[in-house]
Design brief:
Shape: elongated
Number of strands: 0
Number of helices: 8
Largest sheet: none
Order of helices and strands: HHHHHHHH
Helix content: over 70%
């Protein structure tokens, strides 16, 4: 799944940079804003968050390990929090290589780092909310 996610992000980055190099004078925004404002961002969130979270409890139930997990000396809330934090850390690790795109663009165009930080914070918050909904749906299903 990480390969598909990074492939989608790489194609998106290539399209934005290719467009920016050919139409620099016509571009109203920089390449970083174009990359994060492209249609690939909602698409990547739409594909990544459910793919990460849909199997969290359903797979435990299917394989029969949910009963042993819930009878362990850990509360049910602890199990849910641990699964959610594991999904959230995986989500953050998926976005980490995309910081290299910003470093590449920094060599060619000016990068407004507070804007980049706020974009990544927004992606983190949206992903955290989507993953929480996904864990809830996985637990209910």
């Amino acid at each position: 799944m990480a390969f598909a996610f990074l492939l989608l992000q790489g194609v998106s980055f290539y399209i934005v940079i290719d467009h920016y190099t050919h139409f620099t004078t016509m571009s109203l925004e920089g390449p970083v804003e174009s990359y994060f404002g492209s249609l690939f961002m909602p698409l990547s969130l739409l594909l990544t968050c459910p793919a990460l979270s849909m199997g969290s409890f359903a797979e435990e139930r299917r394989s029969g390990t949910l009963e042993s997990l819930l009878t362990a000396p850990v509360s049910a809330a602890g199990v849910v929090h641990a699964k959610y934090l594991a999904l959230l850390s995986t989500y953050v690790l998926l976005w980490l290589p995309t910081l290299l795109y910003i470093v590449i663009v920094r060599n060619v165009a000016s990068v407004d780092w507070p804007v980049v930080a706020s974009i990544y914070l927004g992606l983190f918050c949206i992903g955290a909310a989507y993953l929480a909904i996904g864990v809830l749906m996985s637990a209910l299903a």
